[in-house]
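Good morning N.,

You mentioned wanting to compare the apo and holo forms, so I went ahead and generated the holo version with inosine 5'-triphosphate. This is what I fed in:
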Amino acid sequence: MKIYFATGNPGKLKEVSEKFAGIGIEVMQLEDEYPEIQTSQLEEVVRWGLDWLWERHKVPLMIDDSGLFIKVFDAFPGVYSAYVFKALGCEGVLKLMEGVDPRQAEFRCCAGYIDGNGQVVVTGTVKGRIIHEMQGTGGFGYDPIFVPQDQKKTFAQMTVEEKNSMSHRGRAFGLLADKLRE
Ligand code: ITT
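and this is what came out, ligand included:
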């Protein structure tokens, strides 16, 4: 079985391809970007994006909208994570958090699939904390500053397999795979 994944992020593509390779699904990149609607909910972005892409391509496809939710900032940057990452990067977020304690945060990934039968949308989360300096060179985005609960390494210090075993995306696409097999 082959499924398209519409993303411009090579890191996501790698993680999802590896997760699905284990269950015999080949993931192919669909190079098209859906417009992200203004809403406070990742799920609304995904449901709208799925319909928009389906109308254009009419092939079974997946997308994922993710974000980092920092507790002390009232879940910011959340749905604005991509914008904040481009504007400030990890360094900028660390600066904003200078002297800030506690440092709990959560990654959320909303993953969606669509085909002629309709949509399947699921969410995966992982709790953790923002550390004080960047660590590691793997992964992408906010990975160098996020350590999952009960772990010592950042996502950027883990292999793709390790990150997938506990990450928001690994969990979301694991759930999606279960639903697709039903
Ligand atoms: P798409 O083309 O799939 O939309 P994107 O990178 O724009 O790719 P998102 O809007 O879902 O993806 O991501 C919002 C931001 O959160 C973006 O800056 C990502 O780098 C970051 N992010 C998402 N998942 C992450 C992860 O697993 N680890 C670190 N940062 C992540």
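The first helix runs from residue 10 to 21.

Happy to go through it together on a call whenever suits you.

Best,
F.
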